Amino acid sequence: MAKSKTSKKKITARQFAPIGLWLAGITLLATVILLAFKLLASAGLYLPLNARRLDLFLLISAGVAILGLAVFALLDPQRVREFLTGRQARYGSNAIIMLIASIGILVVVNLIVFQSPVTPLDLTEDKSNSLAPETIEVLRSLTSPVQATAFFTSQYPTDTASKLLENYKANANGKFDYTFVDPDQNPVLAQQAGISGDGKIYLQMGEAHEIISYASEQDITAALIRLINPGQRVIYFLTGHGERDIEQSAEEAYTQVKSALEAKNYTVQTLNLIADHKIPEDAKAIIIAGPLKPITADEATLLGDYVTRGGALVVMEDPIPTTQFGDSPDPLADYLSTKWGIALDNDVVIDTSSNQPLYAVADSYGNHPITEKLQRLVSFFPAARSLALDSQAAIPPVPLITTTQASWGETDFSTLQGSGQVGYDANVDMPGPLVLAASAEDTTSISRIVVFGDSDFASDKFFSQYANGDMLINAVDWAAGQEKQLNLTSPQPITRTLNPPSSLTLGLIALMFVIVLPGLVIGGGITSWLVRRSKG
After folding, report:
1. pTM of the predicted model, to two decimals?
2. Closest CA to 431 of 490, 511, 351
3. pLDDT of residue 448
4. pLDDT for 78-119, tens place per residue?
C-alpha cells in the first residue's frame, strides 16, 4: 500500500500584503475627507468642534496610509516592481500626477489665501466672517501694540475666539497679537492677570489692561476703546450699615467682587455718607451690598440727588429676617419704590424646584444688556426676597431675573425660623414666578438703577459658582455706563430655507442615480468587453 503524503500549503508573507493595501486605501479615503473638511473650515464654511483634533486626525490618517503602502511594498516587493515598470504604471502615472498636482494646488491656495498675513478673504454672502467698519476704524487708531491673552481650558472650545482674534490681528497693521493660555496648566499667570473662570480674554496696551468675559466683537472693541481713551472709573461701596466687607476675605465678604472690578480697571473705594455727608464727583456708581441696618433718610436724600444728576446705584437688600431692620422704616426702599417703581417685598423666596428650597434658581432672564450673555447659564440666590414692579411708573422697571412657577414668597417667617412645615398659603404668600432683580434707566438724566433682592449670591462663597459673579459685574458695568462704548454695524444674516423636493423630483433623482447612471456604466463595460472579444 502506497504511503500517502499530505502536503501543507506554505504560508508566505506575500499573502498578507493586501492587508496593507486595504489599510492604505481606507485611510487615504479618510485623509481626503478630512482634508476637505479642513479646507471648508479654512474658508469659514464649516466650524469644527475642535480644530486641533481635526488636524491631529488628518495627520494620523495620512501617516497610516503611508504605513499601509510601506507594509504592502515590504511584503510584496515583486508586485510593486511590476506595477512601477509595467504598462499599468505608464497609463496610471498620468492619473497619479494629475491627482498629486490637484491636491498640491488646493494646499497652496489654502496656504496663500487663508494662512497668509494679509486680510483673509470672506467668501460668505453676508460677510459674517468680517469685522464691522467701526472695529476696523478702532484698530487703525491704535497708538500702541495690544497683546491679547485668551485664558481657555481644554474643555472650552477655542475655534470662535481664535478666528475672531485672528481677524483682529489681520486688520491691525501689526499692532494686535494674541496667544492662548490654559489656566489649568498655568494658574500663576491666570492669578497674576486677575482671571477667574474660563473663556476670558486679557487685553494689555502699555501699562493699561482690560478683561473681557466673552469672546465677542462688541466686548473686545469696547475694551480697545477704553484702552485708547483711559480714564479713572471709580466705584464706591457704601459702608456704615453692616454692608459686605470688601477688604477682609470671608465666605460672606465681597473681596472677590472687588478683585473682579479692579481686574476690569475700576478703582474701588468705600464711602461712608454718615461721616462724609457728600458723594464724590468721580463716582461712576455706588454699590449698596446687603446692609444689616437701614440707611438713614439723609443718606437716601443724598443718594437720590446723586442719581438725579446722572449717577448710578446697584442695590442689594436681603430679606428682613436675615437683617437687623426689624420694624424700622427703610428710606432707601421707599425711594426705590416711589421714584423707580421697584418695591422690595417683605418675604423670603421658597423655590421647590431647587435642591435647597431657600436657594432661588433663575428660571429666565430679561432681554437686557446685563443678562444677554447669560441666557444659557444658571444663577441662584440664597435667602432672597422678591421685587414688585410697577409697570405704570414714570420710568417702567425691567425685570432681569425671574424664578419658576414652583416658587413663592413666604411671609410667615416663624415657620422658617422654627421647625414648622413651610407651605404656600394663597391668602398671604406671593405666588410665583417671582422677580429677583430689576433695572431702570432715566434716559433724560442718564441715571441707572439695578436692584437685587439678595446679596449672598455674589459673596466670596458663591461668586465663582455658575453665573453669579458675572451677574453682579455685568450689573455694575451697565450701571456705570461701561457695557457698550459703540454700536457696531453687525452683518445681517441671510436666512436660507431648504424646501424639500417633491415626490416626483425624488423619483427622478432615484431613477437617475440608481438605474440610469449605473446602467450606462455597466452597458459601457459590456460593450467594451464585446468589442475587445470580437477582435480576438
Report:
1. 0.60
2. 351
3. 97
4. 776 666 666 655 555 555 556 555 666 666 666 555 555 455
Residue 399 has pLDDT above 90, yes or no: yes
Domain assignments of the chain as residue spans, ordered by start? 15-114, 133-220, 232-479
Cis peptide before 433 (omega within 30 of 0): yes
Report CA dihedral (179, 115, 24, 82) to the nearest 10 degrees: -140
pLDDT at residue 105, rounded to an integer: 66
Percent of the chain predicted with pLDDT > 90:
44
- Nearest-angstrom CA–CA distance, 133 and 139: 10
For residue 428, give the C-alpha cell.
398671604
Give the pLDDT confidence score for residue 485 in this predicted structure.
46
- Quote the CATH superfamily of domain 133-220: Glutaredoxin (3.40.30.10)
How far apart CA 518 and CA 271 sit, in angstroms, is: 84
Which H or E run contains 349? Answer: strand 348-351
Q: Are 413 and 348 in contact (CB under 8 A)?
A: yes
**Cβ atoms of residues 148 and 165 within 8 Å:** yes
**Averaged pLDDT of the chain:** 83
Looking at residue 350, the DSSP 8-state letter turns out to be E
Which helix H or strand E contains 518, and what residues bound it?
helix 517-534
What 8-state DSSP symbol labels residue 233?
-
| CATH 3.40.50.880 at 232-479, yes or no | yes
Q: Which helix (H) or strand (E) holds 176?
A: strand 176-181
- What CA–CA distance (Å, rounded) separates 42 from 357? 49
Sign of the CA dihedral with 402 first, then 403, 404, and 408 last: negative
pLDDT value for 486 = 47
Q: What dihedral do alpha carbons 125, 126, 131, 134 form, nearest 10°?
A: 130
C-alpha distances in Å from residue 276, one per residue of 282, 290, 472: 15, 20, 26
Beta-sheet strands, E only, within 191-338 = 200-205, 208-212, 234-238, 267-271, 283-289, 312-316
Alpha-carbon distances of 241 from 246, 301, 534, rounded to whole Å: 14, 16, 108
On whether the CB atoms of residues 266 and 234 are closer than 8 A, the answer is yes
Main-chain dihedrals φ then ψ at residue 84, nearest 5 degrees: -75, -25
Mean pLDDT of 253-261: 92
